[in-house]
Amino acid sequence: MNKLIPAIRVKNLSFSYDTQKILEEVSMDIYESKVTAIIGPSGCGKSTFIKCLNRMNELETQVQVEGRVEFYNQNIYERRVNLNRLRRQVSIVYSKPNIFPMSVYDNVAYGVKIVGWRPKVEIDEIVEAALKDADIWDEVKHKIYKSALDLSIGQQQRLCIARALAVKPKVLLMDEPCFGLDPTASMKVENLIQSLRFRSELTIVIVSHNLPQVVRVSDFTAFFNFNENRIGRLVEFGLTKKMFNSPNDSRTRDYVLARIG
Ligand SMILES: Nc1ncnc2c1ncn2[C@@H]1O[C@H](COP(=O)(O)OP(=O)(O)OP(=O)(O)O)[C@@H](O)[C@H]1O
After folding, report:
1. For ligand 1, what atom is nearest to the CA of residue 209?
2. Is residue 151 part of a domain?
3. Residue 153 CB neighbours (<10 A)
4. Where does the record place the ABC transporter domain (predicted)?
């Protein structure tokens, strides 16, 4: 494996919603150009963790954060950080597609237009490229000015990925992107992740309960679990192959064995 460069370094991160502590002292690196999977039992803080990586959970409620999250050496929790810029560079796709009630085109162009004025022809090119990158262009090219709400859920999810890709993020966070999709739609999203995986300019973090899928799509895996106080902790982090074949920690082994045997 080539030299690993951390795109994001998480150092002693603890996180609370109001006074309820959710995560405690998480430290790990997220390597550039790799796919890192976050696994663990329901409620242990996986979604919370990835939303800490672009400060998305601050939009929801009062939060407390300790420790550091460094995105290419800059602590994103410093006061002077431009959150809009951060969230373009570290973009997120949720488990439930958050389609805007507008056309397919406008859904993808949305983030691009916010950044600043560009000639329409340039936006057209960006929209087409993003839809191609998200492997949905052939399905929507004849209806890009029609409402995105008329697409299937699987198509809506790939449209959300196109929207995220259109602003050229360095890191793409995916929170259970195949949740609720039928097997065919889920496979399309998985194939898309595989094709994005081999783009050197993109780093991917994916939360998933689907462990066979994690094995197929990820390079590294982080296993989170509750500690004795029901607070989420990172138990083990390493190469996906190693984590699934010979984990260091018995809790990782038990979790993996219970789910894929
Ligand atoms: N906005 C919020 N305000 C308060 N508590 C929250 C909020 N979002 C999540 N929580 C709580 O944080 C804890 C961790 O939730 P989180 O969604 O991060 O877990 P998860 O591991 O991703 O779970 P799942 O696998 O079921 O999606 C839960 O107890 C949840 O109720």
Report:
1. 25
2. no
3. 13
4. 8-256
Using CA positions, which residue lies closest to atom 23 of ligand 1? 43
Q: What is the pLDDT of residues 195-231, one digit of tens each?
A: 999 877 899 999 999 999 999 999 999 999 999 999 9
SS3 category, 70:
strand
Cα 241 from Cα 125, distance rounded (Å): 39
233 ligand 1 Cβ < 6 A: no
Atom of ligand 1 nearest to the CA of 17: 4
The whole model's pTM is what?
0.96
With H, G, I as helix, E, B as strand and everything else as coil, classify residue 182.
coil
Whose CA is closest to atom 4 on ligand 1? Answer: 17
Residue type, 163: R
Output 199 or 74, whichever has higher pLDDT. Answer: 74
Number of structural domains (the chain) is 1
Residue 144 within any structural domain of the chain: no
- Amino acid occupying residue 197: R
CATH of the domain at 214: 3.40.50.300
Atom 8 of ligand 1 has which residue's CA nearest to it?
48
Whether ligand 1 lies within 6 angstroms of the CB of 38 is answered as no
Judge if the beta carbon of residue 17 lies within 6 A of ligand 1: yes
62 touches ligand 1 (CB under 6 Å):
no
Q: How far is the CA of 15 from the centre of ligand 1 (A)?
A: 11
Distance from C-alpha of 47 to C-alpha of 219, rounded to nearest angstrom? 19
Contact of 217 with 190, CB cutoff 8 Å:
yes
